[in-house]
């Protein structure tokens, strides 16, 4: 201003370094794609499904191939044992295999139903069969074998990839790596069971068999997800349970209950099958023996319920069949009926078997549990598991029949056999197209099973510690014995105990060393202490006579003095 020139305004501040790059224009939207805002995160479920679809399907196929092949092999073997009865009806191996496959698929959630019109095969009798029969029977041995093969294959998959269970938190999507692998295996297991369900639908002489493939797909998917998840996530769950003592105790009690259930039910089934084979071997063929082996867990669950006092009941509700004379009925097999068999020895053996089973449950619960609460929790888990198993071990059959043609009307029946069977029958007359329904079921009473299972199981768990002490085995898991402290700990006030740091309690404190007491029979070491017994006075020689009358005799026996020489 002093020079007559106007001051120019100051320019913008120039930052150090190179200039920033120009802003890029936003990418154009993809036609047909999502309309999320730029930078918005995708849905967690969508991201999980996307990573699952892009994962390793070859490894999942290796895991899921075992259970699917197992069902196919078992059906092929069962078809060979059913050849004797099937040849008389004209059924070939392919039809028999598909029928057996439909029966086995019930172990993973399938179903069996017969529907159609079989009038052509009954023309010689002047009767017809038309309607539908549904059989509900779960072969638990097939379920256990299928789950065991799947768990073994999943554990081998984890052994090949040991870092899979511990990938949580290792990166984006790594925490769900186990879940993604489980979903892939479950999808393939469900697809394999669905394909077998489509195969297991034969038709013969106007009657079609349905195995409910869509229901098989759903239940096999859920079952395989649970089994594979438990097998794959077992290693990663150890660290999680280690920080939670309550959950760790609950899981330990659950494992103990499942182990006890497996041991007791298998033992009961084996004993029952052996007893039946020994008494009824003349009336049994190869097909009946195979059926009993396939239904071994079912037989064991019902036999254990009967051994503990819950009767096994068979009920049926039939329409008015002229030559049967009754429309409904009920038969039970309990202590009262068993007492009339074998002069009472059958009942005695059944009760002894129930006692042995209860003691096995109590022994496993006591020896595998750390405290009384865990023992009682294992007993509770065992009762619940047994109730579920008994409900699944039963069998039921339902039939609905219509007049299928003929002059005299029609009769139809549906039944299932193999120590878990139901019977249903119906009669349809030709007058007005009569429709008849029937229902039959066999199983153990649920309320009585629950009551007796509670009594036997908890009674055995409460009594077993005392029995183990009587035989010198102790009443719980082995724990190192801690010797008692020789001296009482010094008394500490409650306030001081809470104020003392935890390290002070961990530091070992040596007890004071007591003074060694003087033995009472040793002579005193102090010079001027008189010994307990005076020494005898010995006669003196003439040279040792005292010099004067005041001298004391026996000078050699007196204690030494300061003036004495030597």
Give a quick summary of the entry:
This protein is α+β, with helices and mostly antiparallel strands. It is built from 17 helices and ten strands. It has helices at 44-53, 57-81, 83-87, 93-104, 140-160, 177-199, 213-232, 234-242, 245-279, 286-294, 296-307, 335-338, 345-367, 372-393, 446-470, 494-499, 502-506, and strands at 112-117, 130-137, 203-204, 207-210, 312-317, 328-333, 395-402, 410-415, 423-428, 435-444.
What would you say this structure looks like, in words?
47% of the residues lie in helices and 11% in strands. With 566 residues, the protein is an alpha+beta fold. It has helices at 44-53, 57-81, 83-87, 93-104, 140-160, 177-199, 213-232, 234-242, 245-279, 286-294, 296-307, 335-338, 345-367, 372-393, 446-470, 494-499, 502-506, and strands spanning 112-117, 130-137, 203-204, 207-210, 312-317, 328-333, 395-402, 410-415, 423-428, 435-444.
Structural class by secondary-structure content: alpha+beta
Helix share, percent: 40-55%
3D shape? flat
Radius of gyration: 43 Å
Unreliable segments of 5+ consecutive residues: 36-40, 122-127, 166-174, 321-325, 404-432, 478-509, 518-529, 540-557
Whole-number mean pLDDT: 73
Which H/E pattern describes the elements? HHHHEEHHEEHHHHHEEHHHEEEEHHH
The total count of helices amounts to 17
What's the β-strand tally? 10
Major beta sheet, strand line-up:
3-4-1-2-7-10-5-6
Please give the alpha-carbon distance between the first and last residues. 131 Å
Described by strand count, sense and barrel closure, the largest sheet is: 8 strands, antiparallel
Percentage of residues in strands: 5-15%
């Amino acid at each position: 201003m002093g020079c007559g020139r106007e001051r120019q305004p100051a320019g913008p501040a120039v930052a150090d370094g190179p200039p920033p790059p120009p802003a890029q224009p936003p990418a154009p939207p993809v036609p047909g794609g999502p309309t999320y805002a730029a930078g918005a995160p995708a849905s967690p479920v969508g991201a999980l499904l996307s990573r699952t679809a892009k994962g390793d399907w070859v490894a999942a196929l290796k895991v899921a191939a075992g259970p699917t092949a197992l069902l196919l092999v078992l059906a092929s073997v069962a078809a060979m044992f059913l050849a004797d009865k099937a040849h008389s009806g004209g059924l070939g191996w392919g039809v028999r295999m598909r029928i057996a496959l439909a029966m086995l698929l019930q172990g993973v959630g399938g179903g069996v139903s017969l529907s159609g019109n079989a009038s052509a095969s009954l023309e010689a009798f002047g009767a017809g069969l038309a309607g539908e029969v549904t059989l509900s029977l779960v072969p638990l041995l097939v379920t256990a074998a299928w789950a065991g093969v799947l768990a073994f294959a999943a554990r081998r998959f984890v052994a090949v990839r040991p870092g899979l269970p511990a990938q949580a938190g290792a990166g984006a999507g790594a925490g769900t790596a186990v879940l993604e692998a489980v979903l892939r295996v479950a999808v393939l297991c469900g697809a394999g069971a669905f394909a077998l369900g489509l195969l297991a639908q034969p038709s013969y002489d106007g009657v079609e068999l349905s195995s409910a493939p869509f229901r098989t797909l759903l239940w096999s998917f859920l079952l395989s997800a649970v089994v594979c998840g438990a097998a794959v996530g077992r290693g990663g769950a150890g660290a999680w349970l280690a920080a939670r003592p309550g959950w760790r105790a609950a899981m330990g009690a659950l494992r103990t209950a499942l182990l006890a259930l497996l041991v007791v039910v298998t033992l009961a089934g084996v004993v029952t099958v052996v007893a039946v084979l020994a008494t009824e071997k003349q009336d049994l063929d190869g097909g009946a023996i195979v059926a009993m082996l396939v239904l071994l867990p079912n037989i064991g669950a019902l036999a254990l319920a009967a051994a503990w006092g819950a009767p096994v009941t068979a009920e049926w509700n039939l329409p008015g069949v002229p030559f049967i004379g009754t429309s409904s009925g009920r038969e039970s097999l309990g202590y009262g009926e068993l007492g009339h068999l074998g002069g009472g020895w059958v009942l005695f053996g059944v009760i002894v078997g129930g006692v042995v089973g209860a003691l096995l449950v109590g022994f496993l619960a006591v020896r595998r549990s750390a405290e009384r609460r865990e023992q009682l929790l294992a007993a509770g888990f065992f009762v619940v598991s047994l109730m579920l198993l008994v409900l699944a071990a039963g069998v039921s059959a339902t039939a609905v029949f219509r007049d299928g043609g003929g002059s005299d009307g029609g009769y139809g029946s549906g039944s299932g056999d193999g120590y878990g069977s139901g019977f249903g029958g119906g009669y349809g007359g030709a007058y007005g197209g009569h429709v008849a329904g029937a229902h039959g079921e066999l199983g153990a009473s649920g309320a009585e099973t629950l009551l007796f299972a509670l009594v036997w199981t908890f009674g055995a768990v409460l009594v077993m510690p005392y029995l183990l002490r009587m035989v010198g085995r102790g009443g719980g898991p082995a724990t190192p014995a801690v010797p008692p402290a020789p001296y009482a700990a010094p008394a500490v006030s409650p306030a001081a105990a809470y104020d003392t740091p935890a390290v002070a309690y961990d530091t070992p404190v040596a007890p004071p060393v007591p003074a060694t007491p003087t033995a009472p029979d040793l002579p005193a070491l102090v010079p001027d202490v008189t010994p307990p017994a005076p020494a005898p006075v010995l006669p003196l020689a003439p040279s040792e006579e005292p010099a004067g009358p005041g001298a004391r005799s026996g000078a050699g026996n007196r204690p030494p003095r300061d003036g004495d020489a030597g």
